[in-house]
Amino acid sequence: MKTSSLTVCPGRRAQASGNRRDPHDFAGGGKQFAIRLTVIALACTTAVLADERGDRWLAKIDSAETVPHSIASISQTITTSSGSDRTLEFRSFSADSGKVSLMVYTAPARVENDKILLRDGGDQVWYYMQRRDITRHYAGHALRRSAMGSDFSYEDLAQGEFSEDYQAEYAGEQELDGEPVVRLRCTPTPDGPSYDHVIIYASTVDNLTRKVEYFDEDGPMKTLTLGEFKVVDGRKTAHVMTMVNHRENSRTVMRIREIRYDEEPDASLFTKAALARRL
């Protein structure tokens, strides 16, 4: 058999173009090549199955966590790297299964009636500042900005579905704080969040998220943990959400004071025209 180019395998000598191979040598090389193809095929099949399993888990998480609408009262405590704390209070409204949401700050006085409006699952954000009577629009890379000086960015506040923003790879199961969880390595879709990837830990019992680790190209950025689960209107809900910023050595704790799922907010709340209106 004549060949114009050859792959050099470890332990074998390359044959020059036009030279005749020893038939025994060719047979051994053929077997090695077949084995390589089999290994590659198995690896690709395993990766595809892991991706399919991961995406199925994301769908389960979305099904467990997506709510048609909600109304809540929430406190937000920001702890800086120096150890100083400041607490803000706000009311939260969501509708259309989380595709639209509104945060209305009620305390302290300097931020009273400031608002954050998220539409299109968080792809479009408007921030209204009451004392200056100005509205700012954020989209694209601007969504990476800190929201109200917290460790949550605007894109972190979005309530869209994981399966719309990420593709997931199943990375096994383990225990987290004594509870069985699935581990998913999630890569953003082309129109998804700005992170390089995130790792989601969700309970295998109720499919609710317990922890999310955020990474950029340089490594770990932030970690979100969710706890103090309570059943409200038939839905199991995390009442404490803690975001730790590993780069800034700071943290933000959001604590739900009250939440309801049995009342749908007025649709007029989720419009830019309503931002300047006092609630």
- Would you tell me the structural class of the helices and strands? alpha+beta
Overall radius of gyration: 26 Å
Strand order within the widest beta sheet: 6-5-4-3-2-1-13-12-11-10-9-8-7
Q: What's the CATH H-level superfamily name?
A: Lipoprotein localisation LolA/LolB/LppX
Helical fraction equals: 10-25%
Low-confidence stretches: 1-26, 37-50
CATH class: Mainly Beta
- Give the end-to-end Cα distance, rounded to a whole number of Å: 84 Å
Describe this structure in words.
This protein is of the alpha+beta class and 279 residues long. It has helices spanning 23-65, 154-157, 162-165, and strands spanning 70-79, 85-95, 100-107, 115-119, 124-129, 134-139, 166-176, 179-188, 197-203, 209-216, 219-232, 235-245, 250-260. It has a single domain (62-274), classed as Clam (outer membrane lipoprotein receptor (LolB), chain A), CATH 2.50.20.10. It contains three helices and 13 strands. The protein has a 13-stranded antiparallel sheet with strand order 6-5-4-3-2-1-13-12-11-10-9-8-7. The longest helix is centred in the N-terminal third of the chain and has 43 residues, at 23-65. The termini are far apart.
